[in-house]
Amino acid sequence: MDNWDDLRFLVAVSKTGTMTGAARLLGTNVATVSRRVERLTQQLGQPPFVKTAEGWKPSAAAAGLIEVASAFEGRISREINQNGAQGARGPIRIGCPPFISSHVLFPALAHSADRLASVQLEFTDRVFQEGLGDNDVVIRPKPPTGGRLRTRRVGEMAVRLYRHEREGEEWAGLDRSYDETSVNGLGLTRYGRPPLMRVPTFRALADLLVQSGLPGPLPDLLAQDHPMLEPVPEVPPFQIELWVIYHESRRGDPAIEAVLDWIDAAFAQLAPPHHAK
């Protein structure tokens, strides 16, 4: 390969799934990303990416090269953070559902000055997508099924049906991608019909339940912010396990280790919500 810098563009497109996202990640423009990808196409003899409904995915010709380049990039970041232990480290991008940031991570910042000393943090909204994307650390339900990723369980959250004082026959839920999960399954089992209204995230669903008067599934963490909502007593909750993942090349990175320790502490500090009415 004539220009090793091209690999940065290969990895960025793989992480973000779009030319625009890669350009943002690298601080350049879409035309430059497109030009570098085209040059890689010529060197490989075939396109490094294929277009899918979810964005650009690595082709078979480029998958191995991307994995090697990603690991190399991770080891560089690890070495920089190890050698810069007395100065700023990072930035570390943390991807997780928005309510995990607002209700778990942010409240723990006030007690983490020593643990996160000199670590720069960036937070991104990442719900249940596979992999890391353009993040260094991701918090998500269920561990990944492949890739060179390290994972550990950090906690769990209870999800149950919530309602106003009166409960009708209609309900609100998450989008159709959740119909095969226990989340929308709570409402489908209880009401025997699809939700009347759908939204993409739990935070939006909490606002919808408050404003519409409809019942629906919510994590206890979010429902406790809305005292007008009460659990449906006949429907037991279920627990969603939460896992933190990061690339194995970042093992031993002091910035990553500090962030992982802080995430563990943040979940450990969670107080059980009260449901008695």
UniProtKB/TrEMBL annotation:
Keywords: DNA-binding, Transcription, Transcription regulation. Gene3D superfamilies: Periplasmic binding protein-like II, Winged helix-like DNA-binding domain superfamily/Winged helix DNA-binding domain. PROSITE patterns: HTH_LYSR. GO terms for molecular function: DNA binding; DNA-binding transcription factor activity. SUPFAM superfamilies: Periplasmic binding protein-like II, Winged helix' DNA-binding domain. Residues 1-59 form the HTH lysR-type domain. It holds the Pfam family LysR_substrate. InterPro entries: LTTR (IPR050176), LysR_HTH_N (IPR000847), LysR_subst-bd (IPR005119), WH-like_DNA-bd_sf (IPR036388), WH_DNA-bd_sf (IPR036390). Belongs to the LysR transcriptional regulatory family. This is DNA-binding transcriptional regulator, LysR family. The lineage of its organism: Bacteria, Pseudomonadati, Pseudomonadota, Alphaproteobacteria, Rhodobacterales.
